[in-house]
């Protein structure tokens, strides 16, 4: 037996470990969101509960292993060499795809990706077999299309079911308990907890045990025959326990329900989705063992068909436990999992704040239509009933700034666990992500978390995520098809190249994720104290002046020398600066004003204006660099010496203005401030002269059309930079005066304008 197949098995094992890490980072974090969003317990306690659930749930997964072995294709139609390439193509594609979604913080489905990757790889291997051999078969003879369609149908049906069920139960529950639920929960809480925990127990334990390697068939038969009695005792037992905890020990049983739901959903996740991570490796390992035995008996593995993969399989407990441990570690240490989690929490949280998604025509249409329908129902609803219902939805202040309360968290977890566990018991690979996400979105809608200020963004976020799921199916199939064809054609060389490609993409995506998170943290910056506000504004004005001088210097140097690289660097710098102050204006200003409790409206006004003037300067710098780069990149006529000299004159005068202001700012002596403003007026006079000189050059035929257009644009944008710079300096002076009056501290920044003058 060739050693290449042992190498493939080892590669599959390594890829399975990576798949557990990237898959859990995307999929498993969903069962944590309700606990994290409601802040039911410290983070370490939530992770501990989820970890226990995962380890137990791994024992329930063997019944799902057949999905990777024979759920999509007929293994008896594939030879051993071809099926090993099929499995390898699936694993390589899965890691690339899931890591890509993790990098951008978008939840997707490991189940959808696995099913469509198996389908794509199977089609690829089947096509290659049909092209290279004369078997007389057709493509349909290789693919289990009926079962594949049933699996796909179950997956996508779960989207609608989860959303509707989540919405309905949340609405009924909120009408019963309201947001101020403590009073009503005092009387109904134990019964509510009994029902919720009975449902969780039924689906997560009674139904889940049917797929477990831990119990015998006789025990399963006993449960089936006595299910009604078992449920009755379970309901009574949980209700009594909840009543004792609530009324005697004064324990908040909602916390227990949420943590129990977290554990149950973790169990359901591990039982349903573990196959997505190790199922293909297990199938590959079993294929290798079958082939090894045949080769040892003197058989030809190249003509060995893998029909034995269709036989029932009981997974090795050691492999299941090992996979569970890796899943727990990935859950605890993966940074990318936090990005995926934040997406769902952002879309489901109560109240306003930073929105991760913009609006779209479709989301605006949906919200507008919903408002019209809502008004229509409101017009026919009796006033007394409407008043009663509206009274149940009056929000209250949440503890610890949680995204939503424990009532919604318990519903999210309970409903999700029920649906996923039901799918597991029926051996339907329902997507954990689809179910948990859509339940959370349905409950958010029913809970009126999507207000008029946020609805269009939340709806567009949901649409974006769902579109990503559809893209998952398409991309998974296509990439697996291409990778499968490449492996079948290229053999050993193709295997080595694809492993190298995966390693490279994981490295690049890690760096990209770090960069994205850094930008997000910058967007989420909120100045929480007066001293932070003062020091931040003092530092920011230095940054603006320094970058303005640096960018303009690069632009003029680039035009003079026709240096594309210099102008491109200036454009990159200008775009980064523009994004910085655009984000500050959009995401920092209002949250900062809400966070800082000051009796200094003048100081806060100056802060708002400082950010606004800085933004306007950077917007002009962006326009200057982009138009200049386009000009240079298209190899248009070089600027004349006269044009360069005019731009240099403007630059030197602006630099003089900045340097003069920095000296005053450092000494805190603004007695000569009028001189700085006079220099600004001098520059504005220069702009008029420069414009007239350029018009003269045009009339004399000394300047081309494109050169003239660019020069005039540069003069006009530079004029804006000068005007806004004057406003910026005046505002900053006033800001420092108001800061001194309010008793603020000031930590002086280092001088940032060095070697600015053009020679």
Keywords:
759 residues; Methane Monooxygenase Hydroxylase, Chain G, domain 1; 25 helices; 2 domains; mainly alpha; disordered C terminus; 77% helix; 0% strand
Shape: globular
How many strand elements? Answer: 0
**Structural class, judged by helices and strands?**
mainly alpha
Question: Taking Cα atoms only, what radius of gyration do you get, to the nearest Å?
Answer: 32 Å
Helix segment tally: 25
Low-pLDDT stretches? 744-759
What portion of the residues fall into strands of 2 or more residues?
A: under 5%
The whole-number mean of residue pLDDT values reads 81
The sequence of SSEs as H and E is HHHHHHHHHHHHHHHHHHHHHHHHH
**Main beta sheet, described?**
none
- Measured between the Cα atoms of the first and last residue, the distance is 75 Å
- State the helicity in percent bands: over 70%
Oligomeric category: single chain
Query: Structurally, how many domains make up the residues?
Result: 2
What would a concise description of this structure say?
The protein has 759 residues and is mainly α. 77% of the residues lie in helices and 0% in strands.
How are the SSEs ordered, and which strands pair?
Elements (H helix, E strand, L loop, with lengths): L2 H24 L6 H6 L4 H15 L8 H5 L9 H24 L6 H23 L12 H33 L4 H26 L9 H9 L1 H21 L5 H44 L20 H17 L1 H14 L12 H20 L2 H10 L13 H20 L6 H15 L8 H36 L1 H32 L6 H32 L2 H32 L5 H33 L7 H27 L5 H27 L5 H37 L18
Helix pairs in contact: 1-5, 1-11, 1-12, 1-13, 3-11, 3-12, 5-6, 5-11, 5-18, 5-19, 6-7, 6-18, 7-16, 7-17, 8-10, 8-11, 8-16, 11-16, 14-18, 16-17, 18-19, 20-21, 20-22, 20-23, 20-25, 21-22, 22-25, 23-24, 23-25, 24-25
């Amino acid at each position: 037996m060739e050693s290449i197949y042992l190498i493939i098995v080892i590669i599959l094992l390594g890829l399975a470990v990576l798949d557990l890490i990237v898959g859990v980072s995307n999929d498993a974090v969903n069962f944590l969101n309700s606990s994290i969003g409601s802040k039911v317990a410290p983070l370490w306690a939530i992770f501990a509960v989820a970890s226990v659930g995962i380890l137990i749930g791994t024992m329930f997964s063997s019944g799902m292993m057949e999905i990777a072995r024979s759920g999509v294709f007929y293994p008896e139609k594939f030879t051993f060499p071809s099926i090993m390439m099929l499995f390898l193509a699936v694993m390589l594609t899965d890691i690339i795809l899931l890591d890509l979604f993790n990098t951008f913080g978008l939840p997707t489905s490991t189940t959808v990706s696995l099913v469509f990757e198996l389908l794509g790889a199977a089609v690829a291997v089947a096509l290659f077999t049909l092209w290279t051999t004369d078997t007389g078969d057709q493509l349909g003879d290789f693919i289990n299309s009926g079962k594949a369609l049933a699996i796909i149908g179950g997956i996508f049906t779960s989207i609608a079911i989860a959303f509707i069920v989540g919405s309905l139960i949340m609405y009924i529950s909120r009408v019963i308990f309201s947001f101020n639920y403590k009073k009503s929960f005092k009387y109904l809480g134990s019964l509510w907890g009994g029902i919720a925990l009975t449902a969780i127990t039924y689906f997560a334990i009674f139904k889940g045990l049917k797929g477990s390697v831990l119990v015998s068939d006789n025990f399963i038969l006993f449960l089936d025959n006595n299910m009604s009695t078992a449920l009755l005792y379970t309901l009574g037992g949980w209700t009594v326990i909840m009543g004792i905890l609530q009324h005697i020990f004064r324990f908040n049983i909602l916390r227990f329900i949420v943590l129990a739901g977290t554990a149950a959903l973790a169990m359901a996740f591990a039982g349903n989705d573990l196959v997505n991570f190790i199922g293909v490796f297990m199938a590959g390992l079993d294929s290798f063992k079958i082939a090894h035995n045949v080769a040892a008996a003197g058989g030809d593995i190249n003509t060995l068909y893998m029909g034995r993969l269709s036989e029932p399989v009981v997974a090795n407990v050691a492999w299941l436990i090992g996979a569970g441990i890796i899943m727990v570690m990935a859950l605890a240490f993966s940074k990318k999992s936090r990005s995926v989690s934040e997406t769902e929490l952002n879309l489901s949280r109560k109240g306003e704040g930073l929105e991760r998604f913009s609006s779209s025509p479709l989301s605006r249409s949906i919200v507008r239509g919903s408002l019209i329908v809502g008004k229509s129902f409101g017009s026919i609803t009796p006033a007394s009933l409407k008043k009663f219902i509206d009274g149940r939805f009056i929000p209250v202040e949440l503890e610890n700034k949680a995204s939503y309360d424990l009532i919604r968290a318990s519903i999210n977890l309970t409903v999700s666990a029920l649906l996923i566990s039901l799918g597991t018991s029926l051996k339907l690979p329902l997507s954990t992500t689809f179910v948990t996400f859509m339940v959370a979105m349905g409950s958010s809608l029913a809970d009126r978390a999507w207000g008029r200020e946020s609805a269009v963004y939340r709806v567009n976020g949901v649409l974006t995520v769902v579109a990503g799921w559809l893209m998952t199916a398409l991309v998974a199939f296509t990439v697996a098809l291409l990778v499968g064809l490449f492996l079948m054609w290229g053999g050993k060389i193709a295997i080595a190249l694809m492993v190298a490609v995966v390693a490279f993409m994981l490295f690049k995506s890690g760096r990209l994720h770090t960069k994205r998170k850094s930008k997000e943290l910058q967007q989420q910056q909120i100045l929480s104290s007066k001293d932070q506000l003062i020091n931040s504004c003092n530092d920011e004005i230095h940054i603006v002046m320094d970058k303005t001088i640096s960018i303009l210097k690069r632009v003029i140097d680039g035009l003079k020398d026709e240096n594309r690289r210099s102008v491109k660097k200036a454009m990159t710098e200008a775009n980064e600066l523009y994004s910085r102050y655009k984000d500050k204006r959009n995401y920092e200003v209002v949250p900062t004003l809400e966070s800082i409790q000051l009796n200094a409206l003048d100081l806060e006004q100056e802060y708002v204006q400082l950010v606004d003037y800085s933004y306007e300067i950077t917007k002009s710098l962006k326009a200057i660099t982009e138009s200049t780069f386009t000009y240079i990149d298209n190899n248009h006529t070089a600027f004349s010496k006269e044009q360069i000299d005019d731009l240099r004159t403007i630059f030197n005068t602006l630099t003089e203005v900045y340097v003069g202001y920095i000296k005053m700012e450092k000494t805190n002596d603004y007695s000569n401030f009028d001189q700085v403003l006079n220099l600004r007026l001098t520059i504005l006079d220069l702009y008029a002269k420069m414009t007239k000189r350029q018009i003269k050059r045009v009339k004399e035929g000394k300047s081309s059309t494109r050169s003239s257009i660019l020069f005039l644009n540069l003069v006009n944008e530079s004029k804006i930079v000068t005007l806004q710079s004057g406003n910026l300096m005046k505002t900053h002076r006033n800001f420092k005066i108001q800061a001194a009056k309010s008793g603020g501290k000031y930590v002086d920044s280092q001088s940032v304008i060095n070697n600015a003058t053009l020679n």
